[in-house]
Design goal:
heterotetramer; A: 162 residues; mainly beta; Glycoprotein, Type 4 Pilin; 2 domains; eight-stranded antiparallel barrel; 0% helix; C: 501 residues; Rossmann fold; eight-stranded antiparallel sheet; 25 strands
Chain lengths: 162, 162, 501, 501
Amino acid sequence: MFINYEHENNVYNVTIERRENKYFVTYDNTEYRVEAEEIKPGQLKIKIGDRIIKSIITEGDKEKYVFVDGAVFKVKPVELTGKKRTKKKEEGDLSSPISGKVVSVKIKKGDTVKKGDILMVIEAMKMEYLIRAPYDGKIDKVNFKEKDQIEIGQNTVEVTKT
Amino acid sequence: MFINYEHENNVYNVTIERRENKYFVTYDNTEYRVEAEEIKPGQLKIKIGDRIIKSIITEGDKEKYVFVDGAVFKVKPVELTGKKRTKKKEEGDLSSPISGKVVSVKIKKGDTVKKGDILMVIEAMKMEYLIRAPYDGKIDKVNFKEKDQIEIGQNTVEVTKT
Amino acid sequence: MIKKVLVANRGEIAVRIIKACQEMNIKTVAIYSDVDKNAPHVQLADETCSLGDPTPIESYLNIPKIIKFAQETGADAIHPGYGFLAENPDFAKTCNDVGIKFIGPSPKVISLMGDKIAAKKTMEKAGVPVIPGYHGDKQDNKSLVKEGKKIGFPLLVKAAAGGGGKGMRIVHSKETLEESIESAKRESKSSFGNDTVFLEKYIDKPRHIEFQILADEHGNIIHLFERECSIQRRHQKIVEETPSPVMTKELRKKMGIAAVKTAEAVGYTNAGTVEFMVDGDLNFYFMEMNTRLQVEHPITEMTTGIDLAKWQLKIASGQKLTLKQKDLIQRGHAIECRIYAEDPSNGFLPSVGKLSKVETPTGPNIRDDTGIYTGMEITPYYDPMLSKLVVSSENREESINKMIWALSRYVVLGVATNVSFLKKVLGHGEFKKGNITTHFIDDYFKDWATSEKSLSVDAIISLAVYDSMHTKKQEIVRYKEADPHSPWKHVGRWRVGGKGV
Amino acid sequence: MIKKVLVANRGEIAVRIIKACQEMNIKTVAIYSDVDKNAPHVQLADETCSLGDPTPIESYLNIPKIIKFAQETGADAIHPGYGFLAENPDFAKTCNDVGIKFIGPSPKVISLMGDKIAAKKTMEKAGVPVIPGYHGDKQDNKSLVKEGKKIGFPLLVKAAAGGGGKGMRIVHSKETLEESIESAKRESKSSFGNDTVFLEKYIDKPRHIEFQILADEHGNIIHLFERECSIQRRHQKIVEETPSPVMTKELRKKMGIAAVKTAEAVGYTNAGTVEFMVDGDLNFYFMEMNTRLQVEHPITEMTTGIDLAKWQLKIASGQKLTLKQKDLIQRGHAIECRIYAEDPSNGFLPSVGKLSKVETPTGPNIRDDTGIYTGMEITPYYDPMLSKLVVSSENREESINKMIWALSRYVVLGVATNVSFLKKVLGHGEFKKGNITTHFIDDYFKDWATSEKSLSVDAIISLAVYDSMHTKKQEIVRYKEADPHSPWKHVGRWRVGGKGV
């Protein structure tokens, strides 16, 4: 079986074959022969050579979480298309950093703004988040109005650099 | 739905009807109207009038356990035949009080014994349990030999009163 | 003795208070909004009342609703916990007016201490040292900017009604002063319904050290030593410890006396905390008094052996403080870490979602005050604190080791948390040496990114084994049936691919 | 410092020791028999070794196997826990011989204290008071019966190598003396491989009070105050507390000095416990010394703030005891309840089976030292202790309340347990007054039957609702299809019936 995992924008190609109770995992040109048991749902005990690791895995719709050696990793599936999504913030990206409520909209379509101007204020968990102009520019579109619910990653305002 | 529960040799007749989210439980000529929710598997939150109780129920092959109000109850199903089993120890009952290993058998078939004589020694969890003659009598049958594994409730020795 | 307490809060502090009541044979009433229907505090309480709409103002801040529930259930006292209505004098007054005991100080004292300006003026008069600043009535931007320029930079803009860093701004130059004042006012208005601010000198290399107070209704006041709370992000504490690594016997005595004097000056009753700022030369200044049980109260409980929540109930019942200052013993060392649903590598942004797994470490002197459970939905309605992990041991070094051990075994999956970050803070060389100020996080973790930048081999193996175990044969769909060695297969909901070996 | 410890034990004590090691950055090796494959101590350890066959003699008592594992894994020390090989001088000696540090006193001291007769003689010489009795070499039944008659009745027959009530018999009259001697010898032989017994005067209204000792390898010895362990069934402790309700400052001092003298007399090293019997007039007698960490050590840890398991490791590493007697503080009050898989209403018979549910209470100053989990199979191979529930608080009354609160929320389903029984013991009027002796259970709970003699209405409603929820329509089979109101239906695996309404 071949699986790709995406973690922090990197993709990991892994092969695993099962023969009886042994698993043969190949990653980065190294083969790991391991024995494994699922002790409770999602809780694995894996013997890698002399070492025993215990990991906890939970599965969501869009991601898996792995807890192992005291660290947590969130991984996503890689789409078959092979098109890797990159989620790095671009200079002009004004997506909401948080799910919350729009408490104030400072601008309207057509306004000109200066770099650093506050465009929108979003409130979540009793804290305020400010959306500021990333550069001097002109407002093309305002996607939300006051009191709107906004989700993390949704684009707040579109600005053309001037 | 009609259900009988057996607990400590008493049988309880209960009726329950469900209408939408309400349950109507009748026991001992009293009807209880309750709302209930299973919060986690086997964990119930039940509203009886103004009172809320929380109970935990687990199910085995032969019994159910209920934890409620800080107390634990073990209940058994009642056989359809209606024949109620009574498990009270009779005077001559020499069933093993414990699952363990027979470490010593003091008598053989045909021996005569006095009340209080030690007939068999069973060891479990590093402790000794003595099977003593319940009355003066004659040994009819010895069901186990040294080093045999014995289960709780199995008859150890049969003695005829003399 | 109080017979029935309505707990006007949620989460770990509601759980903490309900347990204290139950041990004292006091009946408890929990209140809950729709999203908290199955929360631990609801499971635990003897009676429960539904608040409906989870919006804070409609639920845990809704005074008429809460008072009505208290009356309906026959509660003779209300415990406000911390946050929400804990420092709302109107709420305390309403309780008094309807004959329900508010577990905390009098509305007058809450009101005075809630007004940071009036509080400072009172303390200045009482001879407790305060930080230079502007605490005046002129609240127009122009006057405030003028006063700010007089104090000099850097300075702090603080909401008079604020707390926990809300409505607070550091201003480094006059250019951003007005903007900061406006923003602080706006946040204060939204959080506390009041936009009065004050300005004060910003102290370099400051430590935040506070003293716990207990005062009964018969004039007896004691302090229960200090808590060092300098490790903060966004002006909110995340790691607290006691004793403070900088504390000396003499300073403890002086600050303890000042703390008791603070409480005395206002006729304080019940549990409270006097917060001081301590500078590099160990000068200390009164900052504010928190008129409630503090989030970090467990570290005081672990080192003194005193149960503060139970004493709150005893004092509110009119009992005398039988604890004497001279009998109190500060023993060993305790640390608290606040576990938040937030992403430390992305500006500590709160994270929402469903907790797919919660499993917490246990062991001698490990206390986890928690309000979460597997399957719980973390919503944006309330504070993102999930739980408080507290440890104690014979000395600071062992407590740090114990905390790192416990954090390494603290499993919360489904949202981003600060667990790894806290572990890095505790393991930092300067923290270990006790060289901490309120700038610690900014100084050493400014651009901290998660240490788990790449998947570990153990994680890769775990995932692959898990997916192999949970993939039924019929779920593996071959995309090119013609080629049996094709790398393209389909595993359950997960699309898989990769080069053949 | 020791670098890697093999823990030669299972259950809660193995878990306790592994956690202590990990906090000190010491690597750990767990050993496990087949039935313990998924036990918590195996989950927790850094390395694990399979012992196979669960029979004690083939597993946790198998010296060659354990030594081999220690050598293979490069462990430089072995912690024996309590029970199993903890007081086996041959094991300690074998460890020493192969250059592995045995965490405990020297084989010579274990050997001396393990021989209850020799121990008493040594203490008599050292000036520590002992109970009158026969500790002689003549072990034939005739001589023992003769000596027994000399001492008078009631008397105790005790296995010289015994402990925990095993190989112990009370004899009330000369008629049953010989039979009791034989039975004690047999049990001792089977449990300890040695059938030497001794006889001693049976003291009326006795309390069992013990002192905790720590001794380093440089001649420093301290005691960590007393533990009151009078609440016993089958001569095994089930409830322990500290301080003892009968202790006075003067008696504590005298007994503490005697305990230290006991340790000094034999050149004791590491943690140990000196057990005394205290009579109604507060005279005390040396009973025996346990040369290991005691089951009930947590109550001492909670009241002194000292981590005994960690000090065992430090002492075994050659560190000096930095704790001074005068600096030790006994603060507050702690209680331990041992949770057993046993049926108190049926002679405390052990109970085996699968734990269908384990859920334990948490809260401030509640410590649950446990080795169990949901799904675990309780087998007849080992001691039926499931866990130790420990609480502490400001005073005895609050600790009793806290313990009752915690016991009421301690969920272990699938086997019979003593949880309800413990709750009744803690709630008993005489216990609350502190009027306890080792006869307490016999005096007040002789014919105790479970208080849950009949199903409560809440239990009936819970069961009915549960069965209603979990019965699919198609599982309800009508036995008389002709009559739609027939009471005979079939619910899942459960047969149901009853009168119509």
